[in-house]
Design brief:
The protein is mainly alpha-helical. The protein contains four helices and no strands.
Length: about 100
Amino acid sequence: EVEEKEEEEEEEKEEEEEVTATPGSIGHPEVCRRPCLYFVAGSCSNGADCVYCHMEHPQRPVHLDKHQRESLKQLCDEDLLELVAQLMRIRATQLGFLAE
């Protein structure tokens, strides 16, 4: 009985994901587009074609402040790519894609 209930809950979850998945949801939650504000408000007119994420985001994404953005703009391409690569390695390790 418990197993059946778990299977039903899993099926419901999969159905919800199918309903809410949009092109903007690809890579959710790590690399998807930002959440669709209209969907959250219940009024997204783009539906399944929306380029923003229709899946739940538990927390607001962190944004760089003006000083940080300016600092990044001043980096040469090589330094910027190295910084991004380091951040990607850290995140991939945290998510279990890379061994520590």
